[in-house]
Design a protein that fits this description.
This protein is mainly β and 159 residues long. A two-stranded antiparallel sheet has the order 1-2. Strands 3-4 form a two-stranded antiparallel ribbon. Strands 5-6 form a two-stranded antiparallel ribbon.
């Protein structure tokens, strides 16, 4: 029951439970991993969090914030790690494996084999915009701009 309660407490803070010391930490963060890795889910039967260390093909450890990518240490925040393609960054899965994808964190979604800015027209027809319906893939959908008639004012707050 202790793990359940502590896990729920961490989740309520937008974090995950680090089981060895029952502390809460942001997912994919270097704490509590002492700058030698990132906090990820284990691949075992129990979905516990573990510290995942990264190294290059020669076995040299990657310094934080770098991770393993194509046999080298690469910074996930560096746009050049994925070939300087607009919106494409190294994005982790829950197990700490990084791959080049359209980065939702900076507002990009996959559409037609490229990264498009969500909520903009992009390759869509006039009057449509790229939005995510399910998963990470974008679709074109009719743009619904705010209409003056749909805005209500309550006191000094506009709803």
């Amino acid at each position: 029951m202790l793990y359940i309660n502590q896990t729920q407490e961490c989740w309520s803070q937008g974090m995950v439970l680090f089981y060895p010391d029952l502390s809460c930490h942001p997912f994919h963060s270097s704490s509590p991993c002492d700058e030698v890795g990132r906090l990820v889910l284990s691949t075992g039967a129990c979905a516990e969090t573990v510290c995942c260390a990264y190294s290059d093909n020669a076995g040299f450890p990657c310094p934080y914030p770098s991770v393993s990518h194509n046999g080298e240490c690469a910074d996930p925040g560096d746009a050049a790690a994925c070939g300087s393609i607009l919106g494409r960054r190294l994005v982790p899965d829950v197990f700490g494996d990084y791959s080049c994808q359209c980065d939702k964190e900076i507002g990009f979604v996959e559409y037609g084999g490229s990264c498009q800015a969500e909520y903009l027209r992009g390759p869509c027809r006039k009057g449509e915009q790229v939005v995510v319906k399910e998963g990470r893939t974008g679709v074109c959908e009719e743009h619904m701009p705010w209409r003056r008639s749909s805005i209500q004012e309550v006191g000094s707050v506009i709803l």
